[in-house]
Amino acid sequence: MKMNIYEVRKETLRLKLKAPDDYIQTLNENPEAIDHIANGVGSEENITYHATPDTIECLNVNPSSHIHDWMYNFPEYFETFEEGMRWKKLADDWFYENMLTQINASWGWAFRQTRKVRAWFYYRMVRIFGTKSFWAGKKKPKDWREHREFFI
What we know:
This protein is mainly α and 152 residues long. 57% of the residues lie in helices and 3% in strands. The protein is built from seven helices and two strands; from the N terminus they run H-H-H-E-E-H-H-H-H. The chain has a two-stranded antiparallel ribbon with strand order 1-2. Helix 1 crosses helix 4 (62-73) and helix 5 packs antiparallel against helix 6. Residues 47-51 have low confidence and may be disordered.
């Protein structure tokens, strides 16, 4: 279940999760804008979206997934495919690091290792299968045609 955006803000700031400056500014000034963009864990582009829980062993990871969703949406244009893919990797890496921060700060030490395994699984899924979702809706870079094999 998607977490209330004000709870997301509270946890994000308390844990000092890694996020772009524009995300933090928007989270502080207009959290509803983030709530409109962030859809929880998983991609609506994928058939498994509704089967992907927002929790890992009762720990809601929306503070991490909202940042990831934001980074997959903004910026909307990259000069080169490589520049976009570097941003995607940063988004994926921060998603994983932020989930680990949440896990390490959470109650339930007995679940800690299981949660970390599931966080690794979520990370690997976005690294391997997230490229199409990342580029969806973006203006394509100048060298797009050279890399279209990723999407055929």
